[in-house]
Amino acid sequence: MPVEFESDIFGSTEINSMDEVQLRQEWKTPRVFLAALAREFCIDIDVASNDANAVVLRHITWEQDGLVQSWFAQAPEDIRNRPRVAWCNPGFKDLGAWMSKAIREVDAHPGCVALVMGTAAPSTAWWSRAIAAGAEIRLLAPRVQFVAPQGIKQSSNARENALVIIRSQVGGNSILRERRSHIWTWRWDAEAVLTNGE
User: pTM higher than 0.90, yes or no?
Assistant: First the structure.
């Protein structure tokens, strides 16, 4: 199904489905959702972004490939004494690869946290992998309405969202970490209202 443009800044009024997949990667995470996250997490790096949609200054672009780069290896001096947090919103593309990468990164860097935006899809292999890794899964209510890039018609998010939170193992014991895993519904919009009045 083609995507409608608000203007012809791309030289066309519609694009093919292959381009649509790429454009899904360009949508921004809304500020109000980030405000809700900020009550609990201080994001240090965005690992799946571009210069226009990164949620923090320190980010890994699609060209740099966050599936290959280390997320936590080189921390700036000002954040070396606290847990580091990576934000990963791959636009629902290759979630299995991103989930595996997040688990490996957190395992390799004790004290770090990975926040991965995904769909509520319990029948998928990546969901099972997250549960086995002891992830906390928050079913997001309401759905997060991502912000379209300039020139693309804004549309509603038709998918149920889940935020997967992967933390370091407890004392290096994977069995203990598995016991910490849980799934719950997070009314993030209430958190955002309390944070910044939006």
Answer: no
Confidence of residue 56 (pLDDT cuts 50, 70, 90): very high
What domain range includes position 22?
Answer: 17-196
Domains: count for the chain: 1
110 in a structural domain: yes
Tokens of 192: 């955002």
